[in-house]
Amino acid sequence: MPRATKTNQHPCEVCPAACCAYLNIVVDNPRTPALLNDLLWYIYHQASELYLDVDGDWSVVFHQRCIHLDGKNRCVIYERRPTVCRQFSSKGCHGGDFTESVKEHFKTDRELIGWIKKHRPALFKRLKPAIRRLAK
Question: What is the number of domains present in the chain?
């Protein structure tokens, strides 16, 4: 088998395993105080962020490296990896860069509540005063 070069190398051969370094989970649109509280709970955990994409979908991203990567970012359970891993394609790989599809990015509770105040004032008014104070 010929040795891979930079021009014919499979994308995963030079990848830092970006798709194995985070979990991206679609969550409910925060249309109620209870759903917004769920988003706050997510963002209060270390290495997590919230995204609103250009299609209006909300997701929480947990920046956590898969425990089955070796020192060279190779999957040590490749043959028995979960279906969700098998569904990733190097053709659609974004290398961990979400900027093309991100409309809003929230790293803190203040950013999220400030956005709610500006874009969803009716929901903001329904929040507990202690939470509304985060927007000030």
Answer: 1
